[in-house]
Amino acid sequence: MIDLLDADPRLFSRMGGKAAGLSILTRHRQRVPPTAFLPADLVPQGGEADLAWLRRTGAQIAKWARARHIWHLAIRSSATVEDQEKHSYAGIFRSAFAPVTDDLIAAALADVVRSAVSPQRTAYEQGIGRSGSGELGVVVQATVPARSSGVAFGWRSGGQIHRMIEGTWGMSLDMVSGISRGDTLRSSSADTGSTSLRVHRKPLAVYPLVGREFRPGDAVVVDAHEPTEAKVVYVDEEAGLAYLRLGATAAECACISDDLAALIDDAIDATLPIHPSGVDIEWVEDPDGRLWLVQLRPLTATPDIPAPNRPRAPGLVTGEPGAPGRWRGPVSHPEKVTSYSAADGRVLVCGAARPELLPAIARAAAIVSSDGGMLCHVAIIARELGKPCVIGVPDADRLLPDDVIVEVDGTAGTVERVKATASVADAEAPEPKPTASGIVFRFPDDLGATTGPEPAVLVLTPYAPQSVVVGVAAVSSQTVVAACDTDQQTALRDAGWLPRGSAGTWRLYARDSVPDELVTRVTDEIVGGGATSWHA
Fold first, then answer.
1. Looking at 363, 391, 426, which one is the last position of a domain?
2. Residue 157, C-beta contacts closer than 8 angstroms, at least 6 positions apart
3. Same structural domain for residues 401 and 447?
4. Crossing angle, helix 119-128 and helix 377-385, to 10 degrees?
5. What is the rounded CA–CA span in Å between residue 433 and residue 343?
């Protein structure tokens, strides 16, 4: 095991994504909790670890922690494939928590190692066109006693720095997993003191058991500076965590203060030069108001900002825009969607947007969730996979029963019921399934005038024959859109193409340099019928 502060820079390639991000934060003088890591070549692979290794490594970690007066630990994956520029693997691998005892640390290690092989990983890697690559390392980190915690995104667009912060009281485990919602703060560098803060009820908070014994029913004070009473509802002894129900006043109070927001903004500004495409930060505010950064990774896809005055109409429900694009199809709930193929175009409607639902997400064409926020793991993954997603729709699983036809608009954050019920055969996709051996879309000349000899946007359809791809060389200088089948996604991503949205049954890919305005216009042309198509 190697302490992060003692790590030789030449070990960077062996650290895995999470440890590498923390090492970068340390070198840039950001406040990071005491951290050590096990490179992948010191960790059993294949999802299993023998008891001797677990006991030996658990004792080694416990010794390291006690020497630093650490009494509670976060034990997290640090795979060589996660937290990369294109693929985050958000929530795919396990994070576990443990008090500093040899046996409990060993049990947490076993959970993390086991997560290297899972249905979630298989489904995610099938979606991104990768299979079984990369090895699992492990990060060991002191748990920061959290007054509040959460996630922050920062990215540049239109000459401005855009920031989005989500936070909750205590530890943000349930919030990042999509089980609960936190407060959301949005701002940009162009704002002159004005920000958009949305406060949600946060009745449940998670705190580490450090030097305290809690039992269900106990009344406790969770904030020494602003005494707030809470009641213990559940204690996870093995993880050393207490789940508390907050009083009404605390649950409805904003957890992101102006001072905290300023600290997080500074952290975003300091880390953006590291990842110019954008940063994804996990943060913790301790009881003294200090900010700690516990994870840094590149921002794989930027979220959409919902319009301030979204439409209201009968049959229309609203949430948060989790991932852009539109899709119309029949609803399926998690227990049924896996019985359909991806080509059936089902809309997954679920309660909590947990990463455990990834096998169902992989078979769905769009996702609607009643819980979670725009920065939770499932929303991140939906953006990476190019699947329209609306998150935080109240009572979605009750309002949208199986087989109801809905239109999901992941850009606006709305879901509309367009038909009471339907069979799979009349799923009502906006465009018919293409049957041509290949399709090319031609748009007005002015769209292609500045794109050069290569297409600016590539459109994928899941229905084209697998052997079909319209290559770059075959596309004229005045054609900005070409079509190919979904099996080409891996090659596209390797060539620098990124998922940028959806238009009906089509998936849109474009290089990062292509402006959003062009992608939007292409989308509008497809949806509005302004494009013409012919057999290639």
1. 426
2. 302, 516
3. no
4. 30
5. 10
The vertex-199 CA angle with 197 and 200, nearest 5°, equals 150
Interatomic CA distance for residues 312 and 81, integer angstroms: 42
β 414-419/439-442 pair status: unpaired
How many domains is the chain built from?
4
Q: Which helix (H) or strand (E) holds 526?
A: helix 516-528
Look at 510 and 235; give whichever has higher pLDDT.
Answer: 235
pTM summary value: 0.75
Mean pLDDT of 71-94: 90
d(CA 379, CA 358): 11
Same domain? For 325 and 242 the reply is no
Residue 403 · residue 409 · CB < 8 Å: no
Do 153 and 133 touch, CB atoms closer than 8 A?
no
Task: CATH number of the domain at 26, please.
Answer: 3.30.1490.20
- Give CA separation, 140 vs 30, 34, 41, 85, 295, in Å: 18, 9, 16, 23, 12
Tell me, yes or no, whether 52 and 79 share the same domain. yes
Of 124, 69, 66, nearest to 93 (Cα)? Answer: 124
Q: Could you give the C-alpha distances from 288 to 70, 118, 270, in angstroms and in order?
A: 18, 39, 22
Where among 143, 167, 200 does a domain terminate?
Answer: 143
Residue 526 belongs to what domain range?
A: 439-535
Asked whether residue 11 falls in the same domain as residue 134, the answer is yes
- Give DSSP secondary structure letters for 380-444: HHHHHHT--EEE--TTHHHHS-TT-EEEEETTTTEEEEEES---GGG---SSPPP-SS-EEEE--
Give me the DSSP letters along 61-116: HHHHHHHTT--EEEEEE--TTSS-SS---TTTS-EEEEES-HHHHHHHHHHHHHTT
487/481 Cα distance (integer angstroms): 18
CATH code where residue 336 lies: 3.50.30.10
Contact 302, 324 (CB under 8 A): no
pLDDT at 78 over 60: yes
Q: Give residues with Cβ within 8 angstroms of 375, minimum separation 6.
A: 150, 151, 152, 153, 164, 166, 176, 280, 303
Element holding 361 (H helix, E strand): helix 358-363
88-100 pLDDT, tens digit per residue, is 888 889 899 999 9
**DSSP state, 9?**
G
The pLDDT of residue 205 is above 60:
yes
CA 154, distance to chain mean position in Å, is: 14
Q: What is the pLDDT of residue 38?
A: 92
Sheet with strand 405-409: strands edge to edge: 316-318, 414-419, 405-409, 326-332, 347-350, 366-369, 389-391, 320-323
Judgement on whether residues 124 and 203 belong to the same structural domain of the protein? no
pLDDT tens digit sequence for 473-519: 333 333 445 555 444 555 555 566 677 666 555 567 776 666 776 67
**Per DSSP, what are the bridge partners of residue 390?**
321, 368
Q: How far apart are CA 266 and CA 246, in angstroms?
A: 30
